Amino acid sequence: MSTPLRSRLARVVAATAAASLLLPAAAAVAGPRPAPEQHAPGKHPGTYLAASLAGRATLSADFLADGPPSGAQASPANGRQGPWDGQVIPGFSAMVDNHDGTFWAQPDNGFGAKGNSADFLLRSYLVRPHWDTGRRGSGSGEIEVLDVVEYNDRNDVLDFDIVHEGTTDRLLTGADFDIESLVRAADGTFWVGEEFGPFLLHFGADGTLLEAPYEFPDGRSPGNPYLEPGETTNVGSSRGFEAMAGSGRYLYPVVEGALADDADARRRWIYQFDTRRGEYTGRRWAYQTDQVANVIGDAFATGRDSMLLIERDDFEGDQAVTKRVYEIDLGERDRDGYVRKELVVDTLRIDNPRGIDAGEGYGLGDTFSLPVQSFETVLFVDEDTLLIGNDNNYPGNDARVTGTPDDTEMALVDLTRKRVTDDGVTVVGHRGASGYRPEHTLAAYETAINQCADYIEPDVVSTRDGVLVARHENEISGTTDVAAHPEFAGRRTTKTIDGAPVTGWFTEDFTLAELRTLRATERLPQVRPQNTAFDGLYQVPTLDEVLDLARNSRTCDGAPVGVYPETKHPTYFDSVGLSLEEPLVRELRRNGLDHRQAPVIVQSFEVGNLRELDRLTDVRLAQLVSSSGAPYDLVADGDPRTYADLVTRNGLRDIARYADGIGAEKNVLIPRDADGTLGRPSQVIRDAHRAGLDVHAWTFRRENQFLPAEFRSSSDPDEPGDLVGEIRVFLHAGLDGFFSDNPDLGATAAG
Fold first, then answer.
1. How far apart are the C-alpha atoms of 605 and 632, rounded to whole Å?
2. Integer Cα distance of 40 and 627 in angstroms
3. Closest of 266, 285, 300, 304 to residue 184, by C-alpha
4. Helices (H), 539-592
5. What is the three-class DSSP state of 465?
6. CB of 300 closer than 8 Å to CB of 378
7. Backbone φ, ψ for residue 338 (5° rounding)
8. H helix or E strand, kind and range, residue 604
9. Is the pLDDT of residue 38 over 80?
10. Using alpha carbons only, what angle is made at residue 284 by residues 278 and 287, rounded to the nearest 5 degrees?
11. pLDDT tens digits, one per residue of 165-211
12. Which helix (H) or strand (E) holds 190?
């Protein structure tokens, strides 16, 4: 981005104070900070933002505010069933800082739908978090509820019936509006974004609706009270204005999900609304989510044209993949016309150096994460500190402790700019963190990133319509639930792949849309039964989605996350008219990764396609080498050379003419003796280095059956052994990097 994040954040106070819409920004919550270092425009290639937990406070999920009973129609969950004798506070969907240690915190419509929320009153609560900072004498860690503003239509502004239609106060309920976002004006009034319309609502400081709702110009949702019979809706149910930022005279409401008529299901629109004129300006900006199912959870202005956005998925607990805060600049767009985004914090990986609330639930330990389903609050409380929080969807969410409703959380996150470091060893998440999540899913890749992998590895195959997707093989019966789909039963067939018959279902017989109806499954359920808990959750990702995830992420050392794609069966795919090389290069180019300095290494077991890629792209290339057999393209051409020939001195010199490194099966580098223990290292690492090639090895796995005998923990083949010990032997032999199903253990060995 043209202006560095750090220097933009330093201007938040000034920009907000100058705004006519927003209140002046605050003094520091966590104490005064020194003036930030100024930087020249441009990214910080040598620095990154490191996040650490500075404080946390919670409100019991079972807390009841004063008011009539609520939840008579709410779905029971986690041992709780309504009605409850008071007003439930089901988390906070939006928040405003009062700059005195208190906040106005706004829940949504209550229990998720019109039909079950008629007894839930729409409110904003004045709250004071007593921050537990992990230091002696810090606060209790509780959120204190001080006061309440009740939203109402006592001026009879609305021209449709509401639940409390015949009453004096005309209190608004969750059956009338689904309020989600909140901006306070300089005059103390509140602008609220909601989802049933979707509408923009303008309330007085006392909660009274001041004017008629402003309708969304580009469509209606199924909950809109003005729907005509048979009218087609364009906004998904509960996919309206979940997020809204305010800057100057303008509001920037963001549509949570994709519009129904949008061909790009990853596009989310940001609109501009002029509060002086009371109308939309006609300007809008496109934001692209990391994957189709992701939604926008909140927004917060950091300058006239910049804002924070929460991007999240709908998973919780250990299933969560995306709970992120990005900063965008409306004045900067990428090659595809989307606003550029830069990662501020991945809330699934926040350092917790003082051990705040460690051990009290999932995501509470040396690393803090916010793995809740509905991560829906973000704002700056000072130039270096974010406040994040959740909507807990009471009583349904149980991300922290299974079977117990999630509390409402507020957390302070300190952001510190640090220098990127490099330990000199390349750790590659093999098919992601496939030892912990089903391989080749965004969940596996995100887990690998959070476990400190430097690169993530997608194996690349093609769909029938020429889209590259990540699967270990083009035959997908072992990695998806395709066999459970009767509509695809007729596509089961036998093909010859690299000279061998293979029976099953193949990606090249499916369009991307058809493939999207499938879900990933664990490939080795007998070895990793714990991974089967994630079966049926995740889609097959496209290469574009994997590249987006990587380029929008940072390693534990602060460097951009690299991508290490492998072209699978390129000779076969050429034979069916679905060449892999050109689409691969196009995707790299579209993502700004087709250059020598890009954190990309393309690998293949074949030789010819690497030579072709050497002519098509400047990214680094790696020749894969097995301990037996030969590259299939050489076999098909009648070339007698084997993998053993490729790793001779002359063979390695030849590889150096078109590639930058080799990825060798680990037995090629250190063979095993007859008793299963590691023998003496071969000459391959030394000879490859002399030829100017890097050497990476595959594949390091923690289970005993994959380990040398001296590193096994028992005779149980599936029990974890000493993977760290094995990797260190290879590193001592001069290995430059390695592929591992267990990147966390690989990072430990490399460190």
1. 8
2. 51
3. 300
4. 543-551, 570-575, 581-590
5. coil
6. yes
7. -90, 150
8. strand 601-604
9. no
10. 135
11. 999 999 999 999 999 999 999 999 999 999 999 999 999 999 999 99
12. strand 190-194
